[in-house]
Amino acid sequence: MRRPSRPRTTKAAARAVTPAEPSPDYLRALYDRTTLGIALLDHAGVIVHANAALTLLLGQEPAAVAGSVLANFCPPEDAELVRARSSLAHGAQGAATLDARFVRPDGTILWGLLSISPADVDDRVRFTAILQDLTERKAHEAHLVHQAYHDPLTSLANRELFRERVSHAIASRERDPSTLAVMLLDLDHFKNINDTQGHSVGDRMLQVVARRLKSATRGCDTVARLGGDEFAILVEHVDARSGAETVAERVVAALREPVAIDGTRALITGGSIGIAVYTGIETTDELLRNADVAMYESKLHAPGRWVVFDPSMHTALIERVTLEADLRQALERSQLLERPRLEETGVYRAYEPRPAVSTEFAVAYQPIVDLVTGQVSSVEALARWAHPQRGDVSPEVFIPAAEQCGLIAVLGRWVLREACRQGAAWNRDRAGPAITVTVNLSAKQLAHDELVSELESILHETGLEPRRLILEITETAIMQNAEATLARLQRIKQLGVGLAIDDFGTGYSSLSYLQRFPVDVVKIDRVFTSRLRTNGDGAEVIRTILALADLLDLRTIAEGVEEASQLDELRALGCDAVQGFLYGQPLTASEVEQVFAAGAAPR
Ligand code: C2E
Ligand code: MG
Ligand code: MG
């Protein structure tokens, strides 16, 4: 098939088929006008001639370039290599390509790709050197590397870079005998700030914290943001654990200062710090894990302070984690917790509990005996957990674990509902004086806004009269976030539910707090009851508490009464009611019914 031919001049057709050799003029134009720097070098690398682009790239006068060697324009670190590749005397063997830096007279740096090729043009010129400007590309690369290793919000090192620095520090310990320490910091209450003030305030807060950490450390330390509100510091060249603790002290002090952002009320955030000191045997992962374990310990026992890792913490942590996992599974087995669905792993929703479901959990009831009437006037509901392998687990163990991992909301709600259901049934089905049930409320439950509405619906659903319910709260729970707690307690009181302070005398509440909180009952901690027996000072403390209760018109219950002599003394001191093994251990619901049926308490 014939193609339609394009009209061409004869000359153009000739050019298309016969490539011409570039004329010396063309080559000269190329040499003069290209942006590539070109130099002709002699056997020793001395520049015989350089084009305009090269002098421009190097920022030099033509006269300074000709007769010099390229290495003269390089920083010392790069000079040797450039010399070796461009001079026969220094061993240059053939073509070579290398990245090299050149320093201009004004101090700026040119990053260049230098290609050197042998060129036997005449006796003088033995090499041609071509220099391409890579400065922008290198800057871009450096930017990408920075991005890959830094946190964009705070510009601190990120987790990858931090790990690398720790590994490097550990590796160099063979040469340097000083210790190093890794410090992990988790901000306290940061989630609150994010939730109440919004994310942009949260972000600014993180930036302020980053700056403060920087100024609390030395230049040779690495400060990193590992993600969220978690920061890390690598402290190097400290001589001992005390060096790391000094840094921790400065960090704690730096975080104690309130932060004001955009005219917000001064925000306060503390941090929990875990420190792991390198002992010469840990790997990077082990050192980081140890710091993590110490931080967890600090969150539990020393929020706002620091804890130095100790190997025993690891065993304790493993025990705690398995306990939490067992508790979670037990709640799932008992259908108090929905198993996570595949598509929403980690999201747990509470089931509407059905009391008919068989459960490892139970509520035991301990009678509380009124000293005036001698009758059981109320019972305290106490959670029980019988694990198939572990056996009975003490609430002193599983309640704190449930609080720690957030399961107390589910468990506490179940105990509350179960106790209210049982209390309502007793008051409906039997003759005799009405029974009040007292239920323990953990600080975590009290901190929840839904508590009051939940309580209201449980009362409604179970039919327990509100005045037949007393909630027990510890002094420490009240003191945490006292203002919000006060408002919540007042709403609970408005429902008609009573409030008791549990374990009174062991916490820190002051008289003024007691006056402000709408409490009805004070439960005297059993340590004071036990001191009635061992040494006489229990009586003094109890006398003081009773006087205080009298003043504030509160009812008093002494806990932990085990012996008749204690009972007699409490009666003599004027205590209103007692609870303790003297009248029996906490019992099952049907066992308590027998106590009710027996009428007056045994003593
Ligand atoms: P608590 O509220 O002070 O409960 C009284 C504890 O003292 C109970 O321990 C009870 O068995 C024990 N006790 C009673 N009489 C005597 C006695 O005469 N001598 C001695 N030595 N002890 C006596 P239990 O049942 O092991 O509960 C321990 C703690 O666990 C409770 O202390 C309470 O703080 C917590 N707890 C139990 N159930 C729940 C619950 O459902 N929710 C919450 N938040 N905490 C609970
Ligand atoms: Mg209690
Ligand atoms: Mg108590």
What structural keywords apply?
603 residues; alpha/beta; eight-stranded mixed beta barrel; 23 helices; 20% strand; binds ligand C2E
Can you lay out the helices and strands and say which pair or pack?
Blueprint: H1 10-17, H2 24-33, E1 37-41, E2 47-50, H3 52-58, H4 62-65, H5 76-86, E3 96-103, E4 109-118, E5 127-133, H6 135-149, H7 159-171, E6 179-187, H8 190-197, H9 199-216, E7 222-227, E8 230-238, H10 241-256, E9 271-277, H11 284-301, E10 306-308, H12 311-333, E11 361-370, E12 376-387, E13 391-393, H13 395-404, H14 408-429, E14 436-440, H15 443-446, H16 451-462, E15 469-474, H17 475-479, H18 482-495, E16 498-504, H19 511-516, E17 521-524, H20 526-534, H21 537-551, E18 555-558, H22 564-573, E19 577-578, H23 589-597
Helix pairs in contact: 8-9, 9-10, 11-12, 14-16, 16-18, 20-21, 20-22
One magnesium ion (MG) is lined by residues 380, 440, 472, 502.
Short description:
The chain has about 600 residues and is an alpha/beta fold. The protein is about 45% helix and about 20% strand.
Describe this structure in words.
The protein starts with 9 loop residues before the first helix and ends in a 6-residue tail after the last helix. α14 packs parallel to α16. With 603 residues, the protein is α/β, with parallel strands linked by helices. About 3% of the residues have low confidence. The protein has 23 helices and 19 strands. Helices cover 44% and strands 20% of the residues. The longest helix is centred in the middle third of the chain and has 23 residues. An 8-stranded mixed beta barrel has the order 11-12-14-15-16-17-18-19, surrounded by 6 helices. The protein has a 5-stranded antiparallel beta sheet with strand order 2-1-5-4-3, sandwiched between helices. One magnesium ion binds next to β16.
